[in-house]
Structure formats: structure tokens, C-alpha cells
């Protein structure tokens, strides 16, 4: 190979520049990359540490949310069968007003996760104002939810007078005692 003195000045500068670039890349690879990796790992560990420190607060918050959910959805107002309680209350109201209970089909139960959702329908006949008052009474008195109300005016062919019907759909959510 040629001696260093026989290489031109321009080629020496190019070799020096190439060596400097290789040195910078090697320096970057050996020092900055591990430093940034350690910085990222430190940030992840700091986030985990904060999550662990906040775990008791988070547990307390979730327990309070669970108690609130249980209080809202899982209590029966009379500690019995909600459907029977509603029917009894409606019977008392119907005796005092012009509302008549026409149909009470079987209730439908649907299991979802750890909850049991009871849905049942009650068909009533009466005046609009009386039906709305009964609806208001049921919403305020019982923990379940009135999922839907459907009003229909159907002509009675015997009397030739239209009759107003209301289908009340009640839903009640309670814990599934047999969930895993």
C-alpha cells in the first residue's frame, strides 16, 4: 500500500472525514442509544410506580362505585318479588282510578355477565292522564327502570269507541347469584 506521504491532500481529507463519521456513528451507538433506552425504561417504571402508589385510592374508588351500583340497581323496595309488588301497587291505583289492567305476560330474564336483567310488560287500559299518573308513580316508587311505554288507540268494535292502551315495559337489574 502506498505511504501516507504519497496520498493526495484531498484524499487525506476524505479519509479523515469518513473516519470522523464512523467515529460519530460508533460513539452514538455505544453511548446515546443505551442512554435513551434507559430513559424510556425509567419512564415506564415511574408510571408503574405511580400506578402502584395510587392502587389503594383506585380500589377505594372502585368499591364506592360498586356500592353505588348495588344501591341503584340491586335493591328491591319491598324485599320481595318486584313484579308482584308492582302489580299490587297497580291494583290499588286501578281501584282508585279508571285504569284497568288488561294483560300481564310472563317476565323475561336475560343473563349478562354477573347481572340478571328482568323485563316484564303490563298492558293497561284507561285515560291518558290516569296512565301518565300511574307511570309517574311507578318511576318514583320502584328501583327498576321503565324501559319503554307504548301508547295505542284501538277501536272497540262492540262499543265503536276508541280505547287507549298503554304497554309498560319494566326492567330491573340484580346480581346473578350463580355467576362464576
Commentary on this structure:
There is one protein chain. With 180 residues, the protein is an alpha+beta fold. Helix content is 52%, strand content 26%. The chain is built from four helices and five strands; from the N terminus they run αααβββαββ. The chain has helices spanning 9-53, 55-73, 82-96, 128-141; strands at residues 100-103, 108-112, 115-125, 145-156, 161-175. Strands 1, 2, 3, 4 and 5 form a five-stranded antiparallel beta sheet that branches. Residues 76-80 have low confidence and may be disordered.
SSE inventory with pairings:
Layout (H helix, E strand, L loop, with lengths): L8 H45 L1 H19 L8 H15 L3 E4 L4 E5 L2 E11 L2 H14 L3 E12 L4 E15 L5
Antiparallel strand pairs: 1-3, 2-3, 3-5, 4-5
Properties at a glance:
alpha+beta, 180 residues, 2 domains, Alpha-Beta Plaits, 52% helix, 4 helices
Please give the share of residues in helix: 40-55%
| β-strand number | 5
Low-confidence stretches: 76-80
- Rg of Cα set: 38 Å
CATH architecture of the largest domain: 2-Layer Sandwich
Overall structural class, as computed from helix and strand content, comes to alpha+beta
Distance between the termini: 81 Å
Strand content: 25-35%
Count of runs of 4 or more consecutive helical residues: 4
What pattern of helices and strands is seen along the backbone? HHHEEEHEE
For the largest beta-sheet, the strand count, sense and barrel status come to: 5 strands, antiparallel
Quaternary structure: single chain
CATH topology of the largest domain: Alpha-Beta Plaits
Text of the CATH class of the largest domain: Alpha Beta
User: What's the number of structural domains?
Assistant: 2
Task: Please tell me what the overall shape is.
Answer: elongated
